[in-house]
Each structure stands twice: as structure tokens, then as C-alpha cells.
């Protein structure tokens, strides 16, 4: 891999951060997240009032997550360089990043499903929204493995 390609992959991490933040916060209005005590009508109202903004934000978020793969690949290359060849930590970091990309796209699909027909039953929208938030927040294990692998390789 040449230096230009590696720099492009490294910059994809920054572009990811910008696109995901724009999609998650100002477009989809997912910060702050809905309160767990919010009623089905309140959650449905959020999707009904901001349908196009949520959809646009989710498109930004899905596109952003595709940029994690080249970023993780260049980190793995650097880990291999530090260790003088293929390293278990490099493969662990890359596999964790790949699974993280999949794990984060799932809640985005659930939120997109909730926004697809915002006029549907409020309980269905709340369930999809709750499933999205739970699947977004709970699988932290692979994120921890990725960070620990990168940290150990650096030390």
C-alpha cells in the first residue's frame, strides 16, 4: 500500500466522525436521546415531526460507518509495521472494527424502519426506536476489544 492510499484511509476516520456527528445530532436529533419514560405517542410524534431529517441523518450515519473499514485497515497496517509483520493484535483490531460496523448499522436500520411509515401505530414506532437504542448502546464489547488491541499494540 502506498503512502497516498494510507493517508486517504487515515482521513476516512475524520470524515466518518464529521458525517456521523452531523447525521446523529443536528439532522436526526438523536441528542439528547428520547427519555425511557417517553410515551409511545411522544416517540411517534418525534418521528412524525422530523421524518425527513431523521431519514437524511440516517443516510449520513450509514455512509459514515462505511468509512470505518478503511480507517481500521490503515490502523492494522500500522500495527503490523510496529510488530514487524502480521500480528494477532492487528487482526483483532480489524475484525473488531468490521463487526462494529455491522453492529452499528443494525440500529440505524431499525430507526429507518421506524421513520419509513411514521403514521403507523405509535407502539410499533416506540418498539423500533427502543430496539434501535438498545442495539446501539449495548454491544460495547467489540468496541472495547478494538481499543484494547490498538492500545496493547501501541504499548
Provide keyphrases for this structure:
155 residues, mainly alpha, 81% helix
Structural write-up:
The protein has 155 residues and is mostly helical. The chain is 81% helix and 0% strand. It has 7 helices and no strands. The longest helix has 29 residues, at 88-116. The protein is elongated, with a radius of gyration of 18 Å. The chain starts with a helix and ends with a helix.
Write the layout of secondary structure elements.
Blueprint (H helix, E strand, L loop, with lengths): L2 H25 L12 H10 L1 H16 L1 H16 L4 H29 L5 H16 L3 H14 L1
Helix pairs in contact: 1-3, 1-4, 2-6, 3-5, 4-5, 5-6, 5-7
Order of helices and strands: HHHHHHH
Give the proportion of residues in helices. Answer: over 70%
- Oligomeric form of this entry? single chain
Q: Give the total of beta strands.
A: 0
Quickly count the helices: 7
Low-confidence stretches: none
Tell me, rounded to a whole number, the average pLDDT.
95
Task: Please tell me what the overall shape is.
Answer: elongated
Class per helix and strand makeup: mainly alpha
Summarize the structure.
This protein is mainly α. 81% of the residues lie in helices and 0% in strands.
Amino acid at each position: 500500500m502506498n503512502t497516498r492510499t494510507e493517508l486517504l484511509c487515515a482521513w476516512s476516520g475524520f470524515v466518518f466522525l464529521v458525517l456521523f456527528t452531523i447525521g446523529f445530532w443536528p439532522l436526526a436529533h438523536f441528542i439528547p436521546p428520547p427519555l425511557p419514560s417517553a410515551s409511545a405517542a411522544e416517540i411517534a410524534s418525534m418521528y412524525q415531526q422530523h421524518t425527513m431529517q431523521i431519514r437524511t441523518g440516517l443516510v449520513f450515519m450509514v455512509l459514515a460507518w462505511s468509512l470505518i473499514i478503511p480507517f481500521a485497515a490503515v490502523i492494522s497496517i500500522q500495527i503490523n509495521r510496529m510488530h514487524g509483520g502480521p500480528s494477532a493484535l492487528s487482526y483483532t483490531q480489524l475484525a473488531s472494527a468490521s463487526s462494529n460496523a455491522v453492529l452499528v448499522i443494525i440500529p440505524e436500520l431499525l430507526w429507518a424502519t421506524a421513520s419509513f411509515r411514521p403514521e403507523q401505530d405509535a407502539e410499533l414506532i416506540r418498539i423500533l426506536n427502543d430496539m434501535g437504542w438498545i442495539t446501539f448502546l449495548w454491544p460495547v464489547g467489540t468496541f472495547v476489544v478494538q481499543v484494547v488491541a490498538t492500545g496493547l499494540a501501541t504499548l
